[in-house]
Amino acid sequence: MTEPLTATEKTSDNPILWVAKPMVTAARQFARSLLHPSTVVYPFERLEDPKFRTEVGIESGKPIGVGPIWDNYRGVHALNIDTCISCNLCAFSCPDLCIDMVTVPGGDPKHPKKCPQIDYGKCSYCGFCSDACPEGCLSMTTRYELSVHSRREMVFPPEKLFGIYQQKLPMNPIRVERPANEDRIVLEPPLCIGCNACSRDCPTNCITMMEIPKPEAKPGEKLPKRIWKEPVINDSDCVRCGTCISVCPKECLFWGSRK
Questions:
Q1: Of 36, 104, 125, 184, whose CA is between 20 and 30 Å from 91?
Q2: Residue 97 confidence (pLDDT) above 90
């Protein structure tokens, strides 16, 4: 004896039900949407309070939310131009190459101040730039809306980022403590050639090239061609930006632990 057909098998054998059942489902959803629409006409309608990302309290650099704000949310950047030291670490650490250092008004004409300009058409919001900033002047806010009419408007110059900073939006806490291997910068004297690159590019001018005594050549030997100066770092003024390490042609500067 054959087993009786199930309800599913009966439905599959009836071509009329193949068409009728989906139409009934669509009609039921349409009638329900007339009373309770299931779509949100953004940006005129929202699932959240429009002010909920701006009306928050700030305590120890962490957003205290009116709504479900995430402490690790990464949105549009905020830049404090006043504390930026033009160390270029944000651009150096950017994996998307979306940060360019551009000149901003003010400062010494001989040494113009440069601050980051971010192209959000390339940015992946990884947060490496804010983590690398030694002064904590570049941070990420909870602003997530970035709709524009052209790709050119996706480029935010320093002045625009500073305007976001002045809005005092909730910002992610910056890295407070640095790894142990970034305790201080150490020099390996035999490799140094006295080229002055570290002192020239130091954003805080904490490196001074000091003259060292020129040794006497041994019989049959020649002294290496170099400038007989070595960098001396003022540790109290150093912000651990690592610019000197990145520009050293002989790699004689490196991170070391304090003894």
A1: 184
A2: yes
